[in-house]
Specification:
The structure is a single chain. The chain is mostly helical. It has one domain. Helix content is 71%, strand content 0%. The chain is built from four helices and no strands. α3 runs antiparallel to α4.
Length: 82
């Protein structure tokens, strides 16, 4: 029984290590947009406006206003979801 637990723990540790090593850190977390202050202000204000709507509609308006910020500050940029 203990041997099976040890084998399972070793396999789990190895799997997690391989998965963590397979992803590039720069591809996993791109925070370049944080330095764009007007864009961050747009997102902040859009979220504040979305919170004024009833709970059932907040997700819709948050998404719609976030996409408007994307269109305004990142026009024609590949990889940006509008």
């Amino acid at each position: 029984m203990n041997r099976q637990i040890a084998l399972f723990a070793t396999a789990a540790t190895l799997s997690i290590g391989l998965l963590a090593g397979a992803t590039a850190p720069s591809a996993a977390l791109d925070l370049s947009w944080v330095s764009n202050k007007p864009y961050v202000n747009c997102l902040t204000n859009a979220h504040k406006v979305a919170m004024t709507y009833p709970p059932a509609q907040r997700g819709y308006w948050d998404d719609k206003l976030r996409r408007a910020c994307n269109r305004g500050y990142y026009p024609n940029r590949p990889g940006v979801q509008y």
